[in-house]
Amino acid sequence: MILIVIAVNCILRSLVEKKLRTSLQQCQPFIKADFSKAHINLFNASVQLDSLHVSYDPELKQQHTHEINFSAATISDIHFFKLFTAKKFEAGSLQLKDAKIKLDNYLLNKHDTLPADVLKKIDLPFKTVSFNAVEIKDAVIFEKKNNACDTICTGSITLNDLHLPEINAAFSKDSIHFSNIQCDLNDVHYRISDYYSVYLKKFYLNSKDSVIQIDALKLVPLVSKLELGEKLGRQADHINASINTIEISGLDAMRLRQKKFIARTIKIKNTSAYIFRDRRLPRSNNKQPMPLDYLKQIPFDVNVGELNLNDAEVTSEEFPKEGSRSGYIKLYHLSVTMKPFRNHADKNASNIVSNINASIMNAGNIHATIDLSLLNGTSVIKGAIDNLNLPPLNASAENLGKFHIESGVLNHLDFQFTATDTKATGQVVGEYHDLVIDRLKLTNNGLKKAKLASFLLHKIIIPKNKDASLDVKNRTGKIDYDRDATRLVTSYYLKALLDGIRDSFAFGFVLPK
User: Which residue in 60, 62, 90 sits closest to 77, CA to CA?
Assistant: First the structure.
């Protein structure tokens, strides 16, 4: 009797291994898979495949393939009866250990690496596939490009209740169903262009808890700030930025595959950004997007209840078209709250309201509210600048604006204007004291005081004091500014504000623009 049991066990194990190898061969020519050895235990209905290798070649050219290697693939609680009789592969779990995943750069850039006709040409061994859990453990993911491999990240991924129903010619990635995904990736490196790569220390996703957390995210420039413009042959923003933490809660992870990003909140903490532009280079005359245009460029639907940016520090530096030194301005403790954050209007929301607070050069504060219409892109901007000590602005004013602030405090400046895609209209109302500004001129020995222009500023154009005792109409400037569509929207808003400030002076029209 024992001999019969042993013989039957050997026969069944041989049949199972043969079935596995046959099933893998049926996935050809697009998918090729093989293993070195199978360990089959019929008593606990498990199979372990050693040195499992899988390659995917959608173009059948043997030039570009995705490749995956596992030291072991263990399948437990297999329903062998359904496997042989109903062409259904059902099992408790699939554990894939020590994964080495090599993704081909060319195929990644094509975006659609699963052509619609692939499955029509494969004699698929199963009608359905189901696992209670699929675990990819201790994975290393590489990107293949020009016969070289760069590490993208390491980590583990778990899918619960994975089900592939009706595997046929109509099958697509949308046919893959699962109840939960948990993704824990570390040291993610990814090159997004010839000039920038992205690095993040940790990426954690748990769809059951509806959370994503990203730690130590960095946008890393691959060329220096002067090289970027030289390589592009035009002005461009060179950005070096980092974010300590991004927390996303209330995420509907299952909708991500439908290109819908739906979440309750996004919290971005401790951001640092440095932006440089070389104004000596020619400027592109391409039309620049407005805020709504930027939102529409996002390649999926966004619907987030609230976005918070907390305690950011932003430095903007420019090298002037004329001159030998750059100028900069810095915002400290920048915070932004957007309610809601979305890129399309519907019956529940047709506007995004953003509240912005920051310290300007640690010399004064600005706060503003921007009400952006998601229907026509018009922005209504209201806010104020308070107690701004002006001489610290010389870091920008001297080299970029060609003027020197000797003294002065902007006690208060209220601003309110509406900005469409063609024109900004509104007004500013301000009060200041002890304002003394010198005009500068560029000489062979650098910037020097322009005596006549400075005299006119002191005596005629800019009164030294405009306090609250002065009639409000004498402290009010009209904003009527035509947008230059070839300049960034930040420039548009700033120029509109300066237009109102210039108009608040009797001879403001002679001030430089």
Answer: 90
What letter does residue 401 receive in the DSSP assignment?
I
Compute the distance between CA of residue 445 and CA of residue 397 in angstroms, rounded to an integer.
Answer: 18
Extract the tokens encoding 372: 């952006």
The C-alpha atoms of residue 334 and residue 313 are separated, in whole angstroms, by 6
Q: Which residues contact 55 (CB under 8 A, 6 or more apart)?
A: 31, 32, 33, 65, 66, 67, 68
Taking Cα atoms as reference points, which of 404, 361, 356 lies closest to residue 384?
Answer: 356
The rounded distance, in Å, linking the Cα atoms of 452 and 206 is 67
Q: Which residues pair with 40 in a beta bridge?
A: 47
Structure tokens at 88: 């259904």
Note the Cα 487 to chain centre separation in Å.
Answer: 22
Residue with tokens 């030289």: 230
Phi, then psi, of 35 in degrees rounded to 5: -145, 160
Before 299, cis peptide (omega within 30)? no
Say if residues 511 and 488 touch (Cβ distance below 8 Å): no
| CA–CA distance, 316 with 295 (Å, rounded to integer) | 23
From CA 494, how far away is CA 38, in angstroms rounded? 69
One-character DSSP codes across 81-140: HHHHHT-EEEEEEEEEES-EEEEEHHHHHHS--S-TTTGGGS--S-SEEEEEEEEEEEEE
Average pLDDT by stretches of 10, the chain with 513 residues: 47 59 68 83 82 85 86 87 73 92 84 55 72 93 84 94 76 77 94 93 94 97 95 95 97 88 97 96 93 93 96 96 92 97 89 97 97 96 96 92 92 96 96 93 87 87 88 92 95 94 69 58
Handedness of CA 463, 433, 398, 479 (dihedral sign): negative
Percent of the chain as helix, strand, coil, to the nearest 5: 20, 50, 30
Neighbours of 44 (CB within 10 A): 8
User: Does residue 54 contact residue 32 with C-beta atoms inside 8 Å?
Assistant: yes
CA distance linking residue 402 with residue 386, whole number of Å = 24
Global pTM reads 0.87
| Dist CA 332 CA 328 (whole Å) | 13
CA distance 176 to 183: 17
Q: Which of 205, 311, 299, 185 is nearest to 252 (CA)?
A: 205
